[in-house]
């Protein structure tokens, strides 16, 4: 059995995205396009890493319904290992978003199946399929904030994760505060936007750099903060603060940009790039993603 290069734990679902090239602020019904594509934070990260040449596996809950079967087939076609995903009798999760020329207008995340599964999705890390408590997984693990607060706290304290390089991503600003326990794991790197950073740190930062420093003060070992078209920042305890400007582009999509930033940054570091180069490559990948451009890591 081929060992995955990285585990992505969290949401694996269908993204249903409605996009229009006009503004919805003054109208309620406009022309546009509606797509259904594989998505979810964990899966978005896994798909990007697969495109970069890594072998990612997902730990998640996927329904035993027809939508779940379609999703598994789509994941396998995209190079994402789903052997360790839990199949459940609940409906396959979905995410629905509406985007216009100003960005994300509204979104609803239905991750009830993942939340109901709870710690059962972690079984491969203890039953020998991927690791055991006596021989825990060593290497990168991406964890997303669609997991329940209780499960995230369990991950933070569990011996199953003591050797992991944890990379933590929020699901949305509304779920950002769930990450507080796990961000304090000594091996954790937190990836958030400026708004999410403020919610976690209990402040209103004016820049990504200010937000990253506030997260370190709040107990994070390392934090990367994005701010749309403004500079991103990387703060790590005991190391210099780094910032990197964003490349100006015409945004043609928004959903998934933060996941692409995280995946590109993680990939760069697995290839030995230093903090400065990894941050620069992550910003370039995010810019290419929102502009619908090709990107070579």
3D structure, described in words:
- Helices cover 30% and strands 26% of the residues.
- Helix 2 (66-77) links the parallel strand 5 (61-63) and strand 6 (86-88).
- The protein has a domain at 6-12 and 39-60 and 117-290: Ribokinase (UDP-N-acetylmuramoyl-L-alanine:D-glutamate ligase), CATH 3.40.1190.20.
- The chain is globular, with a radius of gyration of 18 Å.
- It has helices at residues 41-51, 66-77, 112-117, 149-157, 180-183, 194-201, 208-217, 257-270, 275-290, and strands spanning 6-9, 13-19, 33-39, 56-59, 61-63, 86-88, 94-100, 103-110, 139-144, 164-169, 188-193, 222-227, 230-236, 242-244.
- It is of the alpha/beta class and 297 residues long.
- The protein has an 8-stranded mixed beta sheet. Strands 3-2-7-8 form a 4-stranded mixed beta sheet.
Topology readout:
Layout (H helix, E strand, L loop, with lengths): L5 E4 L3 E7 L13 E7 L1 H11 L4 E4 L1 E3 L2 H12 L8 E3 L5 E7 L2 E8 L1 H6 L21 E6 L4 H9 L6 E6 L10 H4 L4 E6 H8 L6 H10 L4 E6 L2 E7 L5 E3 L12 H14 L4 H16 L7
Parallel strand pairs: 1-4, 1-9, 2-7, 5-6, 9-10, 10-11, 11-12
Antiparallel strand pairs: 2-3, 7-8, 12-13, 13-14
Helix pairs in contact: 1-8, 6-7, 8-9
Give the strand line-up of the largest sheet.
4-1-9-10-11-12-13-14
Identify the CATH homologous superfamily of the domain at 6-12 and 39-60 and 117-290.
Ribokinase
> What is the H-and-E element order?
EEEHEEHEEEHEHEHEHHEEEHH
Structural class computed from helices and strand pairing: alpha/beta
Give the mean pLDDT. Answer: 92
Main sheet properties: 8 strands, mixed
Query: CATH topology of the domain at 6-12 and 39-60 and 117-290, what is it called?
Result: UDP-N-acetylmuramoyl-L-alanine:D-glutamate ligase
Beta-strand content estimate: 25-35%
Kindly provide the radius of gyration, computed on alpha-carbon positions and rounded to a whole number of angstroms.
18 Å
Number of helices: 9
DSSP summary, beta strand count: 14
User: What is the general shape?
Assistant: globular
- Helix percent reads 25-40%
- Low-pLDDT parts are none
CATH top level of the domain at 6-12 and 39-60 and 117-290? Alpha Beta
How many angstroms separate the termini? 27 Å
């Amino acid at each position: 059995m081929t060992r995955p290069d990285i585990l992505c734990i969290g949401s694996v679902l269908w993204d249903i995205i409605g996009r229009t090239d006009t503004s919805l602020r003054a109208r309620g019904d406009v022309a546009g396009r509606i797509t259904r594509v594989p998505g979810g934070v964990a899966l978005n990260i896994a798909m990007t890493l697969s495109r970069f040449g890594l072998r990612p596996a997902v730990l998640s809950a996927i329904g035993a319904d027809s939508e779940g079967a379609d999703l598994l087939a789509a994941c396998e076609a995209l190079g994402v290992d789903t052997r360790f995903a839990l199949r459940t009798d609940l409906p396959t999760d979905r995410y629905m978003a509406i985007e216009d020329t100003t960005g994300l207008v509204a979104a609803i995340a239905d991750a009830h199946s993942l939340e109901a599964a709870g710690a059962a999705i972690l079984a491969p890390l203890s039953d020998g399929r991927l690791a055991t408590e006596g021989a825990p997984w060593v290497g990168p693990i991406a964890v997303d904030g669609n997991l329940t607060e209780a499960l995230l706290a369990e991950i933070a304290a569990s011996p199953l994760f003591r050797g992991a390089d944890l990379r933590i991503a929020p699901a949305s600003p509304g779920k950002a505060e769930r990450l507080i326990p796990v961000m304090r794991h000594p091996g954790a790197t937190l990836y958030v936007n400026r708004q999410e950073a403020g919610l976690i740190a209990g402040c209103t930062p004016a820049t990504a750099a200010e937000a990253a420093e506030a997260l370190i003060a709040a107990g994070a070992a390392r934090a990367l903060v994005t701010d749309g078209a403004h500079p991103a920042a990387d703060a790590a305890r005991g190391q210099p603060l780094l910032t990197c400007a964003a490349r100006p582009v015409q945004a043609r999509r928004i959903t998934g940009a933060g996941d692409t930033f995280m995946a590109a940054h993680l990939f760069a570091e697995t290839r030995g790039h230093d903090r400065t180069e990894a941050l620069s490559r992550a910003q370039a990948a995010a810019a290419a993603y929102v502009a619908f451009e090709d990107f070579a890591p």
